[in-house]
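Checklist before submission:
- one chain only
- standard amino acids only
- sequence pasted in full

Submission:
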Amino acid sequence: MPKYIPIVTEIGTLRGRDAIHLDTVEISDACRDTLTLCGDFNCALASKRSEEVWQAYQIRFSGMLAMQMTELEAWRPVPEGSWPETAFDEVVDSPWMARMGAQASSEHRHFIFRTYDRVFEVICVTFELELKEIHY
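Returned file contents:
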């Protein structure tokens, strides 16, 4: 049975559908199979509240083995009914990763990043989250 572990960012955990807005998606083979997402976090839905309303971010998932993007309304966690706690979680004991067999090394991790409209599930080695200058 998978377990969802909330990822704690510099602004805390992010909860709710409106917590992560997405502006751009970039996939690059040249940068060691990398997925880069950019957008804004809704600070009102972060566990560490700030005076700012929006915080720009860039997250880069590196060493990507697999990625799937699903429209939020169509997405269902596996197993059905076991919903992640936050908008950004790591999946421990992931059935999807288990199906990868020997392709998934002990370095690989499964993350779920739920934006307002899309859910990204990524099996990768690491991620880097950078908070950018607040622009509104």
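Reviewer check: The mean pLDDT is 90.
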